[in-house]
Amino acid sequence: MNITTIDGAVTLANGVHMPYLGLGVYKTKNGQEVRDAVTYALDAGYRHIDTAAAYYNEEGVGAAIASHPVARKDIFITTKVWNSDQGYDTTIRAFHDSLQRLGTDYLDLYLQHWPVKGKYKETWRAMETLYQEGKVRAIGVSNFLQFQLEDLMGNARVAPMVDQVEFHPFLQQPDLVAFAKANQIQFESWFPLMHGRAFGVEIFTRIAAKHQITIAQLLLRWNLQRGIVIIPKSVRQARIIENAQLFDFVLPQEDMEILNSLDEGARMGPDPANFNF
């Protein structure tokens, strides 16, 4: 991945360009809070917004995008089908409901939020239909482990283009990363800052201080240098701007290796293999 500026992108398996920096809006309140956050991000140069039906803020995201001078075609919008809507017909319906809430007639990326056992293949078939009809530019999954990807891909006409999973120095999932790379599935991280726990880790503090950057900037840049798309979440304008100031420094290999050595398999969120759907 060629890391250049805030508007840089990765190229997905089907040729679609996906900005490698986005704003996540998990737990951001619908209405003014999410509208402000999206506006701050677009003002700062972000061109990728990641939401989900389960976040209950698609309306606010759509309103902020509609009222911003940046053209819709220049903004990469991701949303996700929630577990209770999985299945063929219900996924189609959920997709159109999301479009209506977002106020757009197409999506850039549609993801399955979790691998709901017994349903994710039918959900995927619906997503393939939407993709082949041109209603979404790319389709992918979230929280799929390798065995779930292999099972899904065994029947798929279109392979997932993205897998959005928990990823940070304490949970690196090297086998899953390697599998995704081998199958042209773009890795995307959630909880890149360990749900806020990163700010109390001494080794992060020490490396960040050496480079005169914040811990957030350290871990986000580490993700980018690993070739991983990032969607840090914030509602504060200063933090949203700070999280995008990643392009005037490069982490040296010695520090990359220190961070790479910290993997403990430690999850901060649910385990996709043992999740109560």
From TrEMBL:
Q: Where does substrate bind?
A: H113
**Site residues, Lowers pKa of active site Tyr:** K80
Which residues carry out catalysis? Answer: Y55
Q: Does the keyword Oxidoreductase apply?
A: yes
Q: Which UniProt keywords apply?
A: NADP, Oxidoreductase
Supply the EC number(s): 1.1.1.274
- Provide the GO MF annotations for this entry: 2,5-didehydrogluconate reductase activity
Asked whether the UniProt record includes Ligase among its keywords, one would answer: no
- Kindly give the InterPro entries that the UniProt entry links to this protein: AKR (IPR020471), Aldo/ket_reductase_CS (IPR018170), NAD(P)_OxRdtase_dom_sf (IPR036812), NADP_OxRdtase_dom (IPR023210)
| Residue ranges constituting the NADP-dependent oxidoreductase domain according to the UniProt record | 24-263
Q: What class of enzyme is it?
A: oxidoreductase
Annotated family:
Belongs to the aldo/keto reductase family.
Q: What name goes with this protein?
A: 2,5-didehydrogluconate reductase
